[in-house]
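[09:14] KT: can someone run the structure on this one? pasting the chain below
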Amino acid sequence: MDYRLFVLNSAGKFADVEEWDCASDEEALERAAHSRHAFGAELWQGKRHLSTFAGPITAAAGDRAA
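[09:31] RB: done, structure tokens below
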């Protein structure tokens, strides 16, 4: 199945996308959980939202650092 991990920027908007072919939701969720992105990411399979992953930097902290 095709999955997309949408990487978020400091404003919480989609900044990039990673496209994956995974055999199951569990495989995609595991892979996404091990991906590291500063401001977080959202995992989607088609129009279906699977999960949101928080990044180590919050949007407010990222704005102060800029």
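[09:33] KT: thanks! The beta strands are 2-8, 14-21, 41-45, 48-53.
[09:34] RB: yep, looked fine to me
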